[in-house]
Amino acid sequence: MAGYLLKNCAAVIVDEGKGPSVLRNVDLLTNGRAIATIGEGLYKGDLPAGTIVEDASGWFVYPGLVNTHHHFFQCFVRNRADLDWTKLSVIEWLDRIYPIFSRLTEDCFYHASVTAMAELIKHGCTTAFDHQYCFPRHAGKRLIDRQFEAADLLGMRFHAGRGGNTLPKSEGSTIPDVMLETTDEFIADCARLIDTYHDTNPFSMRQVVVAPCQPVNCYRETFVESVALARDRGVQMHTHVGEGESPVIESRYGMRTVDYCAELGFAGPDTFYAHCWELTHDELRKMAATGTGVAHCPEPVYLVGAEITDIPAMSAFGLRLGLGCDGAASNDNSNLMHCIHSAYMLQCLMASTRTHPVPPPVDFLSYATTGGAGLLGRRDIGRLASGMAADLFAIDTRRMDYIGTRHDPLSLIAKAGIGAPTDMTMINGRIVWAKGEFVGLDEARLFAEAEAALATVEF
User: Fold this and answer.
1) Do residues 317 and 356 touch, judged by C-beta distance below 8 A?
2) Residues in the chain with pLDDT < 50?
């Protein structure tokens, strides 16, 4: 693979392991899948044979974003007035939306994944974790296989969260029977996927996470067996925690969700939870003590109208933090860059009510880069430095949109918010999106195929 020389970058956000900083008017050289060096005057030196030179004048170059919680399949249920949270109670909404999910076909899951990943890439995301917990019986067991296929098509670095639900609705879950699996089915398919796809080599493009959907929708044994498999195979674990279910778990087991998961061993440096907005400070301290991380999804707060996650407390207690888009059931876009802005602004809104100060804007960029990489157990992505994966995106700031903002690239995304696609996104040393196009792909064809798959679903 040829390397790239990004010549005369206006700013590069670098991180040698001690936090992000800015280098001005420098070049960035890649070598295959990795960053070779970042510095002044590289263009004047001898470049490796085959190096492609890109004029990066005016570009702010950022580390690729790392999405730590999503539900790609929900992209086929977006912008629907009949499913508006403001018009339905939570129970009414669940009763209406899960039957829709249960009608999706294998092709729907594939094309929804292409849809979500494409939007993520357009907005600077280079690594995506998806929590795929919906397995309708008629759709079969190869849904995550198709997600890896979609990731290969687009060039996305992909961590697949193999989710599942095992508790029947008759016993207190919200899941239709057609979407249920046994614990043995779930664990067996997790093992199959790990054996088939999980790659621990540097710059790996494929990894698998054991991710039972949530404690309220699974038998206790499902989590016990998940822990046993994940620890035996050395993979990460993930689930939903602290999004309103703690009273239910307490009524079933005599303890709230954080203590319940810890008792089962579903906690630790290899584990991260999604959401966690309802947790007490004592519960957050317990998570910090075990090294358990949090994938914070800010934009669902707007629709759900529940508590705003206490990020200042999480930061003060030393919790590992990443950012996620979440699925379209509670966020109608797959734009992680926009989530950086939303996360920061929501915390500013609540600043006067918090015990701890709002972290600075640059920390929210870090949650979406180094923080996300840490949650996924990756040391080779999430920051720009020699030897790290060549995952990055560039914004040409020579536009009216950026007048008055260019003095502080570190705070730009969190404070100003960026709605437009990037000018370039590179993953694993390959440019996958540039000048408004997916390199080597026909977006019109991808659109038509996804629309055709969507049309097969009866709503």
Assistant:
1) no
2) none
